[in-house]
Amino acid sequence: MQLAPGVVTNGVDVLRLPSMGHSSSHIGHSSSPSSADAIKDPTAKVFALIKDLVIGNRMAVSFPYKEPSSVNFYPKEITEGIPFSSEAVQELLQYFSFAPDSKQALGMRQTLALCEKEPKEGEIRGCVTSEESLVHFARRILGRDVRVEILRSSLVSKTTPIVQNYTILGFKEIATGNIVPCHNQPYPYPVYHCHYQLGIDNKVFEVLLRGDNGEMVNSVFFCHMDTSKLTDDHVAFRLLGVKPGESEVCHFFTAYDLATVPIPK
């Protein structure tokens, strides 16, 4: 398939700059930070434990701002018309007018490599480029005929500090069991990497937070209940002071991540 450089399909501009500063501090993510430098990364301030969910508790959390266009799926009619493969990198670089050595090109290559990586034993993983492909992926895990709900944290405003103290105003458990987390990746249009570990139940909460600046955030709080197979150098264990297998590890989802859960019948 040949793509004309700079084509805008159906009036939707698919050329956006990926956020190279996006933190992949998610548990189970193949590029999770493990160096001591990761602790200094402000966007790593997303981790907590279930016991930290106490009304009135105040903690520093990172909710970076992102343009809504970078997180909301484009119609599948658009994304299905664009190759999504490392084999098509040169064609894609020309299409999006990216220099081969640019940060945008690097982000695109890294995302394609992640999406094409073989899953580990007992793992289901893949990348989705539309809401339809997300639902299809989730149903592979949740059940073919299951209705799927997509959970996202609310967007913060442009003026919100990347990190500030938030006070917990309320929380409730949304689901336990089969939950599929997905993380936004650097790419010219919204792409999410989704992953699921077979036989492991997780939990997801909805947490209402108020920032010191007065802004309210309705956040998804995702908990990995079995951490025994994770490496002990992950930044989450360093920040929380726990070791693999001795505690769950939870993290607040920013607005550019999401989770899918089954809707009860």
UniProtKB/TrEMBL annotation:
Pfam families: BURP (PF03181). InterPro entries: BURP, BURP_dom. Residues 47-263 form the BURP domain. It comes from the Eukaryota. Transmembrane segments: none annotated. This is BURP domain-containing protein.
